[in-house]
């Protein structure tokens, strides 16, 4: 059964009150643009210029991506809280040529346009395959110097600093002005020869 969006239907009223955000990549302009759809009007909310020659890959989280746990428990019983944002998008951009070729990997928040992560891989080139799932980014890229493909995995965590309520757990209490911070330990997997 399909529902038609007529001016008198409840669905049409709901669409007018709930904004829809979307992002478009313009490879010929090397630009990302974010938009918001409110009712029948589309408004540009942010724009980012990508530095480089060519967009190699763009990917975002799947809409039905399941989150299996909210954090990772460490050996000292502390918890790393996962950075779980369903509105993230990864972009791989190539620049240069010959021995000066490099790949820039970037992660953006599609609602605000904030760049959350950036990594530059010198002497790396396309093709690039990337995947964004839960709180991690996985990408597969060609290393020109070593003449092999390499896989990089980056996990994103929120660093929740101690507050006065749980300051008895530690003798050092950081200033409250920086209560949340994004951290990203990364792993590099090299293929066996």
Structure commentary:
The chain is mainly beta. Helices cover 4% and strands 52% of the residues. The chain has 1 helix and 15 strands. It has one helix at residues 10-17, and strands at residues 20-26, 31-38, 41-49, 54-60, 71-73, 79-82, 88-95, 102-109, 115-122, 124-133, 136-143, 148-155, 157-160, 180-183, 186-189. A 4-stranded antiparallel β-sheet has the order 4-7-8-9, with no helix packed on it. The chain has a 4-stranded antiparallel β-sheet with strand order 5-6-13-14, with no helix packed on it. The protein is flat and about 55 Å long. Residues 1-6 and 162-193 have low confidence and may be disordered.
How much strand?
A: over 45%
| Major β-sheet strand ordering | 4-7-8-9
- Compressed to H and E, one letter per element, the order equals HEEEEEEEEEEEEEEE
Number of helices: 1
Q: How many beta strands in the DSSP annotation?
A: 15
Global structural class: mainly beta
Q: Round the mean pLDDT to the nearest integer and report it.
A: 75
Q: Any idea what the shape is? A: flat
Radius of gyration: 21 Å
Amino-to-carboxy terminus distance = 55 Å
What's the story with the biggest beta sheet?
4 strands, antiparallel
The helix content is under 10%
Uncertain runs: 1-6, 162-193
